[in-house]
């Protein structure tokens, strides 16, 4: 259904929903005083640390830190996005979800529906060709040679793109509209054309396309809802490249998708860990050996979005890459990406395969039981971390210890505040022979930045050992471990969430915020206006709104985090941050205006000359 869900409906839904009933249907709660408790559904535990507070309509787990309102719980428990969670609660409440229609949103939604439709038709076409095309034997023989059964081929909807330039085009692209849809879906390529005459316009009939995928095994890429959003193709001849992915489209963003995740989710809560491998055939081969919890990135490095999606599903991730130098490089990059996501309760391991092997070949060599045993005993993140950093260093020498300290500190700073981060610091202090308190003081000695708040961290040169290092910076000169510098607008949002009433004291003109392009600034303005429109707006209503944004996951635990600012200083700090943000926007607007004026003057001078 197209359109946005009105905020008023979300507020009303939260007011009419009892979070205890919502969670009790899915988990089973026990009354403990004023609250309710259970074993947390988001991580494995024996002693209940999951608490539901009916008075505040909020849940929180003291073990893993998960927390939020009824909408957030449904999102995490059912592993769905914000709109689907709202629709689920609305069904339980017996109400229909209204939508705010806009012409642009309606048109975009309609176009996306068309792309998904044409991609599904393409998938069915390729599956049919694998069974019936006259040249199917080459594809069948290849799959058999890789040990792929008909059952697994069916589960993953494998197909075959026959040789030729227009097989798919002839079957689906029956008119210009269908051809354009195929083009936007990345399934066909437009031929290069040259114009004749005096730049006359080409007619629709002059437009020609050809199939992108030819003589390849086809791997449909499906989103978490099982919709075909793209394809990967493995060549059967000598063409290059060996593997070819669909291009980015309106419905396919390869940096966010994981091949095989839909198939894992379809099996329910059977798994407590995910294996992250590099390719389609790795996922297929493991599934063939009855290892059904593997997913793969689509030719990209492991991203924050990948990690978020995996940790929504399980609490343990095992990276399993090829046993070569490239595989080890990919593993280290994955570790760097993982550090900011290592909340307490999560576990990450690395399975390093023998040189010259990949998960596909290795699992067939050693079998299911041995492979699973090696996964169980894979290298823990902390072991890989310190082994890698200590490589080629003499950690018995003062120079070696100093070098290790310089390499490890900027990475350890990325860990979220918690027990795991402290244990990593303790491990470093043990290796260095320096007590934890001394090392903590060394980490505190970070030079103060020129301005107290900024929306863009300074671009310090990363340590040479880490080309992908992404540091986080403190709010002031001296901070404890994992108290990171954050965008000013995000800090303002946190203060506002804790104290909605401070929005009522704003007398400053907020008009400059309306021109902001940064998402956190837009969210800040929206939250301020919500409180101004309804002074009785509560923290949890604001949090519910935040769930519908890309920043929602960063804000769900804000009420349980350490309060750096004393309560009596909250309003003053909020106004200080807001003034800085508005000043920054005004300065940028003035610079843009000055630049435009200078361009106009230069242009006018050229005209006079």
Question: Which short descriptors sum up this protein?
Answer:
16 strands, single chain, about 600 residues, 5 domains, DNA Primase, Chain A, Dna Topoisomerase Vi A Subunit, Chain: A, domain 2, alpha+beta, DNA primase DNAg catalytic core, N-terminal domain, five-stranded antiparallel β-sheet, 24 helices, five-stranded mixed β-sheet
How does this structure look, described?
With 609 residues, the protein is α+β, with helices and mostly antiparallel strands. The chain folds into five domains: 7-93, Alpha-Beta Complex (DNA Primase, Chain A); 103-189 and 207-245, DNA primase, catalytic core, N-terminal domain (DNA primase DNAg catalytic core, N-terminal domain); 261-387, Dna Topoisomerase Vi A Subunit, Chain: A, domain 2; 393-483, no CATH class; 488-592, Orthogonal Bundle (DNAb Helicase, Chain A). Helices cover 46% and strands 11% of the residues. It has helices at residues 7-16, 19-26, 70-78, 82-93, 103-132, 136-145, 150-155, 167-172, 176-184, 261-266, 280-288, 304-313, 325-338, 359-366, 368-376, 381-390, 398-412, 419-432, 436-444, 488-498, 519-533, 539-547, 552-555, 570-608, and strands at 30-32, 35-38, 50-53, 58-61, 67-68, 159-161, 188-190, 209-211, 216-222, 228-235, 243-245, 273-277, 294-296, 316-321, 347-352, 379-380. The protein has a five-stranded antiparallel β-sheet. Strands 13-12-14-15-16 form a five-stranded mixed β-sheet. Strand 4 and strand 5 form a beta hairpin. Helix 3 crosses helix 4 (82-93), helix 14 (359-366) crosses helix 15 and helix 17 (398-412) packs antiparallel against helix 18. The N and C termini lie far apart (58 Å).
């Amino acid at each position: 259904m197209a359109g946005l869900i009105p905020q008023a409906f979300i507020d009303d839904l939260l007011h009419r929903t009892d979070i205890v009933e919502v969670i009790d249907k899915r988990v089973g709660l026990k009354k403990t005083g004023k609250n309710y408790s259970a074993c947390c559904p988001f991580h494995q535990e024996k002693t209940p640390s999951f608490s539901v507070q009916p008075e505040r309509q909020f849940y929180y787990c003291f073990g893993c830190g998960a927390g939020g309102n009824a909408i957030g719980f449904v999102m995490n428990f059912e592993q769905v996005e914000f709109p689907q969670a709202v629709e689920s609660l609305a069904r339980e409440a017996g109400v229909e979800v209204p939508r705010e229609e806009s012409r642009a949103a309606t048109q975009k939604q309609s176009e996306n529906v068309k792309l998904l439709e044409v991609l599904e038709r393409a998938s069915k076409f390729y599956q049919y060709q694998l069974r019936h095309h006259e040249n199917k034997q080459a594809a069948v023989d290849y799959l058999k040679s890789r040990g792929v059964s008909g059952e697994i081929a069916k589960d993953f909807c494998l197909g075959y793109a026959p040789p030729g330039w227009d097989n798919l085009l002839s079957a689906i692209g029956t008119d210009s509209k269908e051809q354009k849809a195929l083009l936007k879906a990345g399934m066909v390529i437009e031929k290069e054309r040259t114009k004749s005459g005096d730049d006359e316009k080409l007619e629709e009939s002059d437009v020609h396309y050809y199939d992108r995928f030819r003589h390849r095994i086809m791997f449909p890429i499906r989103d978490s809802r099982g919709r075909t959003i793209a394809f990967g193709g493995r060549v059967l001849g000598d063409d290059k490249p060996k593997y070819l992915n669909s291009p980015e489209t309106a419905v396919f963003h390869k940096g966010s998708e994981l091949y095989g995740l839909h198939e894992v989710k379809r099996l329910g809560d059977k798994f407590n860990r995910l294996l992250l491998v590099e390719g389609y055939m790795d996922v297929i081969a493991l599934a063939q050996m009855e290892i059904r919890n593997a997913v793969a990135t689509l030719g990209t490095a492991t991203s924050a979005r990948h990690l978020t999606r995996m940790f929504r599903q399980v609490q343990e991730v095992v990276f399993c890459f090829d046993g070569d130098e490239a595989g080890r490089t990919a593993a280290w990059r994955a570790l760097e990406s993982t550090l900011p996501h290592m909340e307490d309760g999560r576990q990450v391991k690395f399975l390093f395969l023998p040189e010259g092997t990949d998960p596909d070949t290795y699992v067939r060599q050693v079998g299911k039981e041995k492979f699973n045993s090696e996964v169980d005993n894979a290298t823990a993140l902390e072991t890989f971390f310190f082994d890698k950093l200590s490589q080629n260093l003499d950690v018995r020498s003062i120079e070696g210890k100093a070098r290790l300290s310089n390499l490890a500190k900027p990475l350890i700073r990325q860990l979220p505040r918690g027990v795991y981060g402290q244990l990593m610091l303790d491990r470093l202090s043990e290796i260095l022979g320096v007590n934890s308190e001394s090392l903590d003081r060394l980490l505190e000695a970070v030079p103060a930045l020129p301005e107290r708040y900024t929306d863009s961290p300074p671009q310090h040169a990363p340590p040479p050992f880490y080309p992908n290092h992404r540091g986080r910076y403190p709010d002031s000169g001296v901070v404890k471990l994992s108290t990171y510098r954050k965008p000013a607008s995000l800090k303002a949002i946190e203060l506002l969430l804790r104290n909605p009433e401070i929005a009522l004291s704003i007398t400053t003109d907020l008009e400059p915020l309306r021109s902001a392009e940064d998402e956190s600034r837009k969210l800040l303005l929206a939250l301020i206006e919500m409180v101004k429109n309804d002074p009785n707006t509560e923290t949890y209503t604001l949090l519910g709104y935040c769930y519908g944004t890309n920043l929602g996951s960063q804000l769900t635990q804000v009420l349980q985090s350490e309060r750096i600012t004393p309560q009596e200083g909250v309003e003053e700090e909020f106004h200080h941050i807001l003034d800085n943000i508005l000043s920054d926007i005004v300065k940028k607007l003035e610079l843009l205006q000055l630049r435009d004026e200078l361009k106009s003057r230069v242009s006018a001078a050229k005209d006079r000359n």
